[in-house]
Automatic annotation (TrEMBL):
Keyword line: Heme, Iron, Metal-binding, Transport
Entry protein name: Group II truncated hemoglobin
Source taxonomy: Bacteria, Pseudomonadati, Pseudomonadota, Gammaproteobacteria, Methylococcales
Alphabetized GO MF terms: heme binding; metal ion binding; oxygen binding; oxygen carrier activity
Organism the protein comes from: Candidatus Methylospira mobilis
PANTHER family the UniProt entry points to: TWO-ON-TWO HEMOGLOBIN-3
Length: 136
């Protein structure tokens, strides 16, 4: 009797590890709740429309594809071109730090697995740093 070669099971994506669509919505909703609530985030909140539903939807769609889930943003808007899409906004270190604060708190509230939460935080903080377009 010959042994059958074992096929490797594909590793779950961060999107799957997070819990898919439902949990990603929880993360993004919590992020914007913090942006709305935290006094420290007022400057970045003012960069957004009064109604955050459009920003919420776009962040959800971007993160979906970025995390290995459905590529919703790409399908709706094309390549994310994050940096160029953020050029109209003055983003310095303070604005980056405000965004990262809201995301850190949202991740802490919604992602229970630290093995997932910490790498997500680090990667998102790097993206936020890449958005800086103003010298201090």
């Amino acid at each position: 009797m010959t042994e059958q070669p074992q096929t490797e099971q594909p590793q779950p994506t961060p999107y799957q590890l997070l819990g898919g669509e439902t949990e990603l919505h929880r993360l993004v909703d919590r992020f914007y709740e913090y942006m709305n609530e935290l006094p420290e985030a007022r400057p970045i909140r003012k960069m957004h429309a009064a109604d955050l539903s459009g920003a919420n939807s776009k962040l959800f769609m971007f993160l979906s594809g970025w995390l290995g889930g459905p590529n919703l943003f790409w399908e709706a808007y094309g390549h994310p071109r994050l940096r160029s899409r953020h050029f109209p906004f003055a983003i310095g270190i303070d604005e980056r730090d405000q965004w990262v604060l809201c995301m850190r708190k949202a991740l802490d509230d919604t992602v229970t697995d630290e093995r997932l939460r910490e790498p997500l935080y680090q990667a998102l903080a790097q993206i936020a740093t890449h958005m800086i377009n103003q010298a201090e």
